[in-house]
Amino acid sequence: MSKEFKGKLFVFSAPSGSGKTTIVRHLLAQKRFKLEFSISATSREPRSNEEDGVDYYFISIGEFKRKIKNDEFLEWEEVYMNNFYGTLKTEVERIWAQGKHVIFDIDVRGGLRIKEKFPEQTLAVFVKPPDINELIKRLKNRGEESDKKIAARVAKAPIELATAPQFDKIIKNYDLSVALQEAEGLVDDFLGVSKEGAE
Question: What b/e string do you get for 10-34 counting C-beta neighbours within 10 Å, with b at 16 or more?
């Protein structure tokens, strides 16, 4: 890892459909925080609205497994069968080299692994949805996945929700505007950034 600048790491984890991506995008838009999005690598196919190198690094299963073998990941997970996600070490180095802090939109297990590796530098935040029915509704509204895939995500949600107490903070995303304010406050506190620097 970069010797010059050791930035902070902000982990946002939650079951799919909880709104963590919306929260992360909002925080990235707050320029005073100097945050840069950590682009995860995945072996899954891109969705219609996703771009390689922007939303994810889309790589083949074979290449992903080679990178695991070569210890190129900070964390990785086989989320579903032959469906890998991970954070490349080079990604954090890339962001720190710019003098920025890293923000992750990541699976709960991956988020907790990053917290384990950088306990002092990481703020791990769990985003809690109102309930399972709301999750199902949000996932269906995306219109991006089959009912089978949605069912697999929903089946995982109770296991993911059970990890919430292991995170530093929990945001209950019942009202998005309140959740966004809360997220800003958490980042502010962790960075010690003054709101006077807001643009």
Answer: bbbbbbbbbbbebbbebbeebebbe
**pLDDT tens, 95-127?**
999 999 999 999 899 999 999 999 999 999 999
Identify the CATH number of the domain in which residue 30 sits: 3.40.50.300
- E strands, the chain, are 9-13, 35-37, 40-42, 56-58, 73-80, 83-88, 101-105, 122-128, 169-172
At 89, phi and psi to the nearest 5?
-60, -35
Q: Is residue 3 part of a domain?
A: no
Q: Domain for residue 51, yes or no? A: yes
Nearest to 1 by CA among 95, 132, 127: 95
153 is in which domain, residue-wise?
9-189
- Whether pTM exceeds 0.70: yes
Beta bridge partners of 2: none
Contact 77, 86 (CB under 8 A): yes
Residue 4 lies inside a defined structural domain of this protein = no
